[in-house]
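Beta transducin, Discina gigas. Tokens?
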Amino acid sequence: MVKSYLRFEHLRTFGIVASGTANAVWTPDASPSSSGKRTGAGQAVVPANEEVLTWDIKKGELLARWRDPKCKSEVSCISQSKTDRDIFAVGYADGSIRLWDSKTATVILSFNGHRAAVSTLSFDRSGSRLASGSKDAHIIVWDLIAEVGLYRLRGHKDAITKIEFLRGEDEDALGGNTDGWLISTGKDTLIKLWDLSTQHCVETHVAHHGECWTMAVSPDQRGCITAGNDGELKVWGIDTSALSTRAKADSDCLIPRGTLYRQTKDRATSVTFHPTSNFVASHGADKNVEIWRIRTEDEVKKALKRKRKRKEAKSVATAAADDDGSKPPDEDTPETLAAAEVGDVFVSYVTLRTGGKVRSVDWATRGGTKASDAVQILVSCTNNTLEFYDIPKTVRTEGKKDSAEVPDYNKVYAVDLPGHRTDIRALALSSDDRMLASASSGSLKIWNVHTSTCIRTFECGYALSCAFLPGDKIVVVGTKAGAIELFDVASSAIIDTIQAHEGSIWSLQVHPDGKSLVTGSADKHVKFWEFQIVQEEIPGTKRTTPRLKLAHTRTLKLTDDVLAVRISPNGALLAIALLDNTVKVFFTSTLKHLLNLYGHKLPVLSLDISSDSKLIATCSADKNVKIWGLDFGDCHKSFFAHQDSVMHVAFERDSHNFFSAGKDRLIKYWDGDKFEQILKMDGHHGEVWALAVGRVSEIVVSASHDKSIRVWSQTDEEIFLEEEREKELEELYETTLTTSLDADTNNPDGPEATSTSKQTLDTLMAGERLMAALDIGTIDLAQTAGPRNPVFIALGNISADQHVLRTTQKIPAAHLQDALLVLPFERVRALLVFVDIWARKAVNIPLTCRVLFFILKTHHRQIVAAKTMRVMLDSVRVNLRTALLCQKDQMGFNLAAVRFVGAAVEAGRNREFGDEEARREEEERGRRKRGFATVA
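Tokens:
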């Protein structure tokens, strides 16, 4: 009988505030207070590996979690729409883009056109188009209304670092360029200006000597700043008036104005203008955010005047020393902004010192009274934190020089409690699996496993191992400094710190009887500690309080560093992994040597013993996992388990099945009796450092370099090994298939503007479904008598053309062209027959036209060569023209009705204002004169 297993699936993720894979975006609170003012600090939309999280900055609460179950790639870029603040575009590392509605946390649109990670996204002013730049050096412009990719722009030779839409002064005027322009920078040192009406690059400049890392366009679009190496920022002027006449003019629209230099000489990874105030923020990969202030026109003129006076004083002094000195300039020369240098306009304002290395910044634009007194900035750090700073604006009095004092800034809020600052190195579950302890360098956190909330946070040393003591009220931590630290969960206090070893405590375990503890250290010692309750006097009183103490009882000296220790569940044996690649097994009671386990080529990093104390599993840096028998020390099986070092191994409760976790980001589930891999659990985006298996429930908890803690739960779904192997082979085939198809279409020497097609598994499947529908539909059309295909009867006895139309309508608009590319020419003939029927019946004319025009453009040569298709094409032309004329009449009638209703609404809303005295005079003129009797 074939043995079946139960599948483990990803249940939840927590422990991550913001990952360093993408930028964070600030957005105002969703609902203002009753007074109309927004009282909170706003919300932060941040990446969290493959998810997007929304945090309340003031409360530190998680408000929303956006996750697409189909996507396992990391978020690489986030952008907010300028028109609808609820719409966010999110780019992913696999080249896909999803548009999310923040109110409902659902995907509105999905695009897939890039062959590498999306590096930058930008909405146009109307919010109807989205431009995306990628590490594949391509730019794609997407139409969000039609849900299709418009074109792909190829001109850069390296990854795109930033793109922005530009608009000319006459863009909205009649005859202006309604498509607009696009400005882009890349790691190929270039800055390019694209005319989107012709889809060509009209200007190219070498921005920097090295890579151009980022760019920011000013809110008024009159200038931009690019960032290069060595702290260099170059300021460019944008001649918006010359954009419309760019084709005829010889002058450049991008004009270099000068160079700014950051205080630190590393490259700037981000530059951003404040949307409403005159500030610019820039940061690199360090802990500093530099902020410049842009002077007003009057301040620039004053600065130029002071500079001119200093120059005059210098020239006068020179002329006094030398008779041939230059003549002093005229004092009445007016100061013009054209003479100003970059340093006269941009002045250093303040440098923020953040808690961690900066990943991204975003300005917060809150309304209210404080907006005029201070500016706020959101900082996302690489150490899993968000920080919110308040920067006061300095009040400058007229007639006085600029204050020399540096403006003070203060960190108002921080979101840091729901995650660790550094990698989690140890995990431990409580006896009932309700609590989880996670330990890293500097902090120990206790989590509620079911609600994913952080219950307690303790400061500790560099933790390498941890465990719950019996009763689940105390957590013990072994540190890199050789100390054992005891923490009380209930009172949130540290109980005791014992300097137990002279080297790092790599491993510790509570004895199965719950009365003692064993620790293994790099000082080549294994020590045994007993739990003792000591009555301690409370200072100043005669009362005593019970306190837990660790009493050192025995020490086992070894020949090499101890990397892992494990006591068998029956308490009889002690297994110790040493730095010399061996595992030694001792009797726990007498500490006499029993077995030596040789075989690993590199040190054993972790080991575990099965519940029945019969098997021991060891994992090593040599990428292998070995299963040994504890009775004779024989190696039952050796697996090449992972593609990198195997960090942890743990047996399942009451079973010989076990889990292994490696630096290759995978967790694997193995059968220790049949020596076969059962399941591969992928989800982490970094090395998996630690693993904990449930003691009473069927869960596995893992912690990774990506700062996330993931819970995997056993489901009721049965899996069979043969099916799993077949599924893995299919996935491998599918990935190689789509990669080979992409290689065929990705021609680097092609034209500058090309189509946005990219074959994916979804488009191939859609094409196959369409082919199947065409096959049965063609047979049904040709058949005059006899039973119909059961598919049509099952769908309500619909006609063949309805079935093909439904199948076509179900294909997403963004995938339609790629799905049609899958069809061979014979199926294209069949599809044209159905297009003719759709045109004759005038159903879904927009879709019919899209399908027809794409087919004609793609298969033009074959269609022209086939004389038999002329009759069909004539029929399509006549039917389609009739349907379009009918739709044109309908649209004209509806448009006239809408205009009539609009005019009536406007007439009801507007009131004519006239001069009352003129109206009275008009009435008097029209009235017949009356005679009045006069009394003398």
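Confidence is low (pLDDT under 50) at residues 172-176, 397-404, 931-936.
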